[in-house]
Amino acid sequence: EAQVTQNPRYLITVTGKKLTVTCSQNMNHEYMSWYRQDPGLGLRQIYYSMNVEVTDKGDVPEGYKVSRKEKRNFPLILESPSPNQTSLYFCATNTPGTGVSNEQFFGPGTRLTVL
Amino acid sequence: GEDVEQSLFLSVREGDSSVINCTYTDSSSTYLYWYKQEPGAGLQLLTYIFSNMDMKQDQRLTVLLNKKDKHLSLRIADTQTGDSAIYFCAETPPPFSGGYNKLIFGAGTRLAVHP
Fold first, then answer.
1. B92 touches chain A (CB under 8 A)
2. With an 8 Å Cβ cutoff, is B93 touching chain A?
């Protein structure tokens, strides 16, 4: 079954404690992205990757890091989380030019609370 | 600049039609999308329209695109309780501005269907 998985699904942490949210896909997609969803703001792109070892900033990259060492995995790293990073995070994947161009497939989401 | 706007709430009676509206600013967008988010779940692509089309119908869903006014709408016929969700309008910038990997989302419209 084609899917995008994220772990953990829920996380409560404290300010400054480093954390990683993992994302994995089994669709062999080149492109992967991280978004955050906040009430009244919709989803905003944090970082994206066009292939292994190729990453770039999205619209709201401050306070986040990513890596893409393997095609299937794209972890989101918060080195020193702060309360304003409390949000719902989504990983998404796509391959341009196949099926619906730029259709993105989303993971189930990770709800992060930073105290 | 890129901006997508939609109203935040819509309440309809079961069996009636729902119309969710969206305005966007980037006239060079290639695709425009409607995503559905059910409670506790990720986003699922509902339908899309290419920017050179005016209308697209898919079973109970009708998408209308007015390029002159940069207005997109989603009509759901015979709305059911299972249609209760948040609906996101999204646009894809052209490829030369990161389009293949980026979606610009509206804030989402929460549709409530009541008996």
1. yes
2. no
